[in-house]
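WARN retry 2 of 3 for item q-0093 after timeout on previous attempt; input resubmitted unchanged.
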Amino acid sequence: MNSFTFIMKKLLLTLLLFLIVIFTLNAQIPDEVIVPAGIRVAECFPPVKRYLYPDFTQGEVNLNNGNHNNARLNYNFLFGEMEFIRNSDTLTITNKKEIHSIIIGIDTFLLENGYIRLISNGPVRVGLKQNISLKDILRKGAMGTINRTSTVDTYNTVPVDGRIYDMVPNEDWVFRKTEEYFFSVPSGEFLPFSRRNVLKIFPGQKKNIEEFLRSEKISFDSRDDLLKLAVYLGRN
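OK item q-0093 returned
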């Protein structure tokens, strides 16, 4: 093997390792949108990023009294709200206490501290709550450094309704899409899908559940694993 071939193989190996590292890092970073200082928030959230569906879709709003209303609906990640079209205006559903469920296509939404979309409707139901939330504020420090500041102390000054869409921040704002999984038995309320809550709801099956979690290497961050766990719990 001559020196040129050796060098080329070494460069290709280095490039391959670099690509693997980049892919791994990207896979660990959640969906993120940075709104630069001086830019209106709305400009960074076109419909394709803001809504669950490509277009407002005909759906059905089922009320607790048995009545239902039909409307063109779409779920807004940024507001965490269900919106509908009326006379060319985009409006937010406000009478939430009267709503039993919302059906859009094959999707069913239930209202429990926000909109939960059913992804499994078996004996143990699994739901998904998706939002886009303001997570960090990037402030420029000395020598051009960037300070990533938690927004815990800033939520009191940032509107939590549609007004945030029209705001123009003074610093760079970092928004991230969050996904939270919930579960419930049909007669119960939805709880965050966690080991602690599972054992709380099924105390008589603690030993078997813990063995299943170990043997199947269940990750509570994995959608597929949670669905597998829900099927197991529903059979016992």
